[in-house]
Structures are given as structure tokens and as C-alpha cells.
Amino acid sequence: MAEVFFSCQPIFDKDLQHWGSELLFREGLENKFPSIDEDTATSRILSANFLACGGKAENTRYIVSFGESSLMDEIPLSMPPQHLIIAVTDECLPTQEIVSKLRTYRTEGYRILMDGKAMTNEWRNHLELVDIFSISMERSKPSEWEDVISQFSQQVFLARKVEKQDELAAAQGCGFALFQGYFFEKPQIKRSEDIAPSVMSLLDVCIIINRNPDDIDTLTKIISKDVSLLYKVVASANILAKTKTNKISNPRQAVVYLGVQALRRLVSLLIMTNLNHQHAHQLQSASLTRATFLSMLDTNVRGFDRDEAFIVGAFSMLDVMLSKPMEDIVGELDLSSEVKRALISKEGVYGHFLSLCHDIEHANWNGLVHWCNQLKLNDKAVLKEYEQARSSTADMTSSMQV
């Protein structure tokens, strides 16, 4: 796990109702610019704010800055267009490739934001791509933009750094539609917990996608070996899938829901975050041991499904990894009711098996015997299978860490 910090400053519409927020990566609780490159900062924001926190409310909008590399790698497509406003950084030049990408994003339903300087620099011949122009009240008076706003009536103008009542009134009178600044609220520094997939897992997925993108089984096998990556794949599938007739019941289903192209973009995003936190290794290993153990159990218990049991084991420690209540986490994932019930309250058939895992891990042999009797299992055989799962997990995870 790792704490990811970001500045969140609200934006208001002409009726002074909350319209959305701008997210900017920060390295701590102070509102200071980070020392890392822009693409890495963007990727960390997206990974922590979307994938570690699940889907967003229907009317939530976030402005996130994207540099040239992120735009060319189609990183914005990892997030739903109804929630994401693509802010093109000042360093981006209107090359043929970038202009083509921006047209693609707009076709997909994303809105593009640029600084007002775009009207006089290299972007002046491509202003039809811009949905929102951002104007700093620190650099300009609202009256200087009144004629421009009237001329570009199809676009929206955002007044930044509004700090006084008279600045707000002037901007409203000149046609600005969105407003941001200390007059409304200072930026809040927020923190989010994120868990990082193994770099080796990500690279393995990249290799398979490039060599044989139709090999869903191999992709699923690799993803299933890394709890963090599996969680982010499931979360991303939930965020991006427009229609799903069935609940996600196994890793393969999550991969199919996501699709190869979206998976490629997700892996690119996760590689760019450059997060590999070794102190999360123990929790991920324990979760994977549970998942492997539950999926290999020889049981005839009614309602038990090996694929769902794997998901239960793999996700059983996400509340600790993400420092969030399990109820909040599973509420954002399209899992079956029995899986959710087990993860939240350890109830139902999978909940009993999770309790069995817990007692084995804590050497509670009375508890082990109780659950084996309850589930009609042989306690010696169960212990042997658990040790096999732990050994198998150790072999897998030792080759994954970077």
C-alpha cells in the first residue's frame, strides 16, 4: 500500500452550484507542486482516485492534466468520459498525431480543456477541438475576454483564480460559465491508499498482449497471480463496461469484460505509476494463498464455486490494503451477492471458508476442527492443501517482485 496525495479544488457553474473538481498530484499534505514528471503524476492520480476508489457518482466530473505521452498512450480511455475532463498541458504541441488523438477522444465523448493561451499560440488553428477554455483572472481582466466569449459561443470559459466578489461579478457579466478560486474554497489536499501490482506481472501481461492478444486464458492466469492487478482489472471492468448481464464471478470474466485494448491501456497506466511498494507484499501473498487454497479445495458443499471462491480469497484483505471499509469496496464492484456477503460479514458458504482460512493462519486448531466438521472436510487433508497453496503462492510471488 502507499498513500497518494492530490489537490482537489472545486469548480462552480453560473448558478454557483458545484460542477466538478480539478485533481492535481501532490507529494504530501502541503499544496506544493511535485518533483516527478507530469505523466507519472497523472497516472498516480488516476490509479488511486479511480481504480483504488471504484466508480464515481453519476454527476461527478474531474479535470485531470495529460501530457503528450499519456495522450499518445491513450491513458484517458482508461476512465469513463462522463467523469473525466482532459486538460491538455501547455507543453503539448499540436502535432498531427496529438491532434488525431484529441479528435478520437472527442468522438469517444471526452471533453477537452486548454488554457486560453491556445488562442494565440500553435493551437490557434485547432480551436474546434477545445470544449473548455481556462482563463486566469491573475493574468487577465474578465473584460478582455468578453468579445472572445461572444465569438466562441459554442465553447465554455472557466475563470480561474477568482478571489474576490467583484472578480466573480465581472466574470459572470462577461459570459464566463465556470468559476474556480479561493473566493469559493481553497484546494483540499486529499489522500488515498493505493496498492501496486508487481512490475513483472505488468510486463508479462504486456508481452502476452503483444504476442497473442487472443490468449485470454494466459492473460487471466497472469492477472490472477497478482491480487492488486486482479482488483484493478475488476474495478476497471466495472467502471468501463456499459452493459453487463451477469455479475463478475471469476478472473476470466473480468478480463473478457475489460477487453484487450482496455487492458493494454490499463497496464500502461499502472506501469507509468511506477509504484512498487514492497511492504504490501505480505498482504498480497496472504490473499493469494487464500485464493489458491479455496480454489483447489475438494468439497461438495452446496453453493460452492471454485472461481467465485478464488475471488473471495483474493479480495479478502482489500480493506486492509486500501484502508477502506470492505462494504465500501465491494459496493463498487459488480460481484455476486454471495461473494459480497462473505467479504463484508464472513457469512454464507464463502464466509465460512474465509473463517476457516483465518483459523489456519492463526493456528486456532479448535476453530479449524469446528469448520471442518461444519463443512464436512478432513482437517488433515485441509491443512495439507493449505500448505500446498502457500508453497505454490511463495513460488509465484518470488518471481513477481521487482
From TrEMBL:
Residues 189-381 form the HDOD domain. PROSITE patterns: HDOD (PS51833). It comes from the Bacteria. Signal peptide: none annotated. This is HDOD domain protein.
